[in-house]
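User: quick one - fold this with magnesium ion bound?
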Amino acid sequence: MIPLTLAEIAEATQGRLHGDPATTVSGPVTTDSRECRPGSLYVARVGEHADGHRYAASAAEHGAVAVLAERVVDDLPCVVVPDSQTAFGALAREVIRRLPQLTVIGVTGSSGKTSTKDLLAAVLETDGPTVAPVNSLNSEIGVPLTVCRVDVATRYLVAEMGARGIGHIAYLARVAPPTIGVVLNVGVAHLGEFGSTEAIATAKAELVEALPATGLAVLNADDPVVAAMAARTAARVVLVGESAKAVIRAEDVVLDDLGRPAFTLVAAAGRAPVTLALHGRHHVGNALSVAAVALEVGMRLEEVATALSHARAASRWRMEVHERADGVTIVNDAYNANPDSVRAAIRALTSIGTPAGRPRRRTWAVLGEMLEMGPDSSALHAEVGRYAAEHGVDQILAVGAGAAPIAEGATSAGTDTRARTSPDSDAAYSLLRHECRPGDVVLLKSSRDAGLRFLGDRLTQEEVAP
Ligand SMILES: Nc1ncnc2c1ncn2[C@@H]1O[C@H](COP(=O)(O)OP(=O)(O)O)[C@@H](O)[C@H]1O
Ligand SMILES: [Mg+2]
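Assistant: Sure. C-alpha cells for the protein plus magnesium ion:
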C-alpha cells in the first residue's frame, strides 16, 4: 500500500473522520482483522453472517492503525462512510490515480480468468514488479484488496474481473481503470443469474467499453461473440487465436502425453517456440492473450515466449496433474465448473488418454454438479455427459444428486462409455479405489461447492490396493 493519511482516505471516500487526521496507513489493507499488520487499514463490512465492526479490536491487536467503517468504532481512529464496500472501491481508485507509472490490465471471460491472470503475472513479472490477485479475488471486494497491494515500485497491476450481472465489470473498471483489457471467451458461467448468453456478452463487453482510445483491447478471434466486441471499444484491438484473422497466433499446436501444449507463437514481430507447463489445449488461447499484453507493454517476442514456457500453475485445483507411483494419473480440475470448462477438461482428459505412439489409457470423468446453471440446469448437465461419451471417455461417474443428469446424458449417447452415479464423494472414493488400475487417467471436475477437489486430493495421495 502506498502511504496515505487518514485525512486523504477520508477525502477519497468522502467519509467522516474520527481521530487524528495525520494517522498514516502504510500496511496491508484488509477486510479480515486477522490479516492486519502494523500500519494496516481494516475495512469493516457488514456481511451476511458477521458484522466486521465487531472485529475492530482484533484488527488493532494485529497492528491496524485505522478502520474504514459504517459506524464509529472505539478501538481505532476511523473513517465513517455509508457503505464500506463502495468506499473501499473509491479508495482503490484513488491509489491508482496516484500511480501514473502503473499499467492496469483487466482480464475477464467466462472461463480461464484465474489461469490467465496467473500466466500474465508470471510473464509480466519478468519485466517489472507486478501485482495480481491472490487466488480468484475478482469481485467488488477482491479488486480493491488487490489494488491496495500496489506500491510506488509496481509497474503492472493485473485485475481479474468477474461478473454475476450487468454493470459489475463496468463498476470494477471504475475501481481499477484498465488501459489494457482482455476478454477470453463468452460462455454460460453463471447463466442462472444472467438469464441469457447475450446478457453475459453485454456484461463482459463492459471491460472493453471502459478502455480509453489510447488503450488496447485483446480479443479472442476464435470466439465470434468476443471478436465482435471490437465494435464496442474506443481502444485499439488485437485479435488473438488460431484463426487466420488473428494477429497474434498459435501455429503447429501439439500436446505432449500429459496434455501440455507446445506451439509456435506468431506475431508481427516474428515467430518463437513456446512449450507450456500447463495442461490442456485451452491454455493456448490464454497464452496468446498474455502474449498480446506482454508485447503491448514492450516485451520482446523471445522474452514473451521464454516467460510463457517457464510459467508454472499458480492457483490450486486448475488442471493439476498428478502422476501416482502406481501409474494412475489424477487430473484435479475441480476448482469450479461450467459447461465450457467441463468440455475443455474432457478434451484434455481424452488427449492424455491417447498418447502419441503409446497404448491408449482408460479415462474416467468424475463429474460433480455445475452450480448456478438456472432453469436449464438438467439439460446442460445431460449435454456435458453426452459430450464426454461422444468424445470417448471410458468411465463416467456423476457424483451427487445434482450431477445425475450427466450420467443419463452419457447413456443416451449410445456409445461404449459406462456411466454411473455416486451419491457422494465418499462413495465415489470407494468405487475408484476399488476399480482404478495402473494406467488409468482420472479427471475430477465440479463447481467449487460440489467439493470434488478434495476427492481429487484424497485420490492423489492414494494408490491402488496391491
Ligand atoms: N480458455 C478456456 N476455455 C475453457 N476453459 C478454460 C479456459 N481456461 C481455463 N479453463 C478451465 O476453466 C476452469 C476455471 O479456470 P479459472 O482459470 O479458474 O477460470 P475463472 O477464473 O474464469 O473461473 C478450469 O477448469 C480451467 O482449466
Ligand atoms: Mg477466477
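One thing worth noting: The domain at 320-461 is CATH 3.90.190.20 (Protein-Tyrosine Phosphatase; Chain A).
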